[in-house]
Amino acid sequence: MSKKTIYILIGSVVVIIALLVVLSKTGVIGNKDKGKEIEITTVDVSTIIETVSATGKIQPEIQVKISSMVSGEVIALPVKEGQVVKKGDLLVKINPDLYTSGLNRTVANLSGTKAGLSQADASFKEAKSSYDRNKTLFEKGIISRSDWDKAIASFAVAKATKQSAYYNVQSASASVNEARDNLGRTIIYAPADGTISMLNVELGERVLGTQQMAGTEIMRVANLNNMEVEVDVNENDIVKIKVGDEAKVEVDAYLKKQFKGIVTSISNSASSSLTADQVTNFKVKVRILKESYEDLLEGRPATYSPFRPGMTATVDIITKTKNNVLSVPISSVVVKSDTTAVVIGKMPDSKTEGKETMPKSDKKFECVFVKVGEKAKIRIIKTGIQDDTNIEVLTGLKKGDVVITGPYTTVSKDLNSGDKVTLKTDKEKK
């Protein structure tokens, strides 16, 4: 074979290879475009339970903070944390010496003011007699005008002195009552039946207390038979909740166990403190129903509670339930506007004939992509309530429609109406 023939063959092979590459890239030969790979589901009816989730702390429904109204040293503390007490039981005693001496001092002062009142009363009677006598003498012209004026002044002074002494007695009597009350406040009794859920002082410590403000919190007496979870709910969700709503409660201390609850209280005002991300929250209280944890009480004393104040719990408040409603996965719903060329109809002009476009509008629409043959078509829908995975469809779809659910990036960004699509194989999903 001559060199010329060899060169011709090599050149022919190169040209053929180049032509094949070009034809392959342009799709004339080889694998054609199969379209965007998608995942689908069929529209069907289901039950949707809308919930609001929040995390909080367990606390007793009834809890009394025991604070001192007087200051002093704790000389008796016959209770300990966790102890069950009855109404009227002694909880704490503060050294009464200072208040005993204060009471004695005010009693002595009261006696002195009473003696002063007796003396002022005697002086008043004497001044009254002198006044009556001088009045008669003045009317008969026996004494001068100046003597009569002196008699009037003396009587007025005696009357005012008696009145002042009377009020001094009243003031001293009030001081005695106050001192007696302060002495009584050195002994604190249980205001109700309950359990000492918190004890903040030790025997021998000093506590502070005033009548104008709360003093040292000594302890807390709580009824542990009725426990609740206090949670913070976002302002966007608080409008969905109402008193009486059922709830599911999960306590960190009891894994894989769920308790029943009911909303008992919703705060009318937002919490005074904002979260780190400046979200406004409202306090909601959920009672844990005893019927849901009776198995934890078996063989325990009547005062036993499986929950302790401060335990962490998560509540799912059921705000609405709908049965047999059309639903689709949340991942299939996207929000579109005119900037993303949402398809809602056909424009009759020559430029867009046969193409689907959306009128210019700033309004946003909830949409899904449905698979029609090998094409993706967009549908505007109206949605209702949702749970963690599905959302209710009110209009725009019917049972049996094939909805594109993923991949997320494809549905939310890449996919357009009219695009060719192909199903993702199980191997590709993995």
Automatic annotation (TrEMBL):
UniProt record similarity statement: Belongs to the membrane fusion protein (MFP) (TC 8.A.1) family.
Q: Where does the Multidrug resistance protein MdtA-like alpha-helical hairpin domain lie?
A: 112-183
Q: Which SUPFAM superfamilies does the entry mention?
A: HlyD-like secretion proteins
Report one GO cellular component. efflux pump complex
Segments forming domain AprE-like beta-barrel = 228-319
One function term, GO molecular function aspect: efflux transmembrane transporter activity
Give the residue spans that cross the bilayer.
6-24
Q: Tell me the InterPro entries matching this sequence.
A: Beta-barrel_AprE (IPR058982), MdtA-like_BSH (IPR058625), MdtA-like_HH (IPR058624), RND_pump_MFP (IPR006143)
Q: Which organism is it from?
A: Flavobacterium urumqiense
Q: Where is the Multidrug resistance protein MdtA-like barrel-sandwich hybrid domain?
A: 63-212
Its domain of life? Bacteria
Full protein name: HlyD family secretion protein
The UniProt keyword set, sorted, is: Membrane, Transmembrane, Transmembrane helix
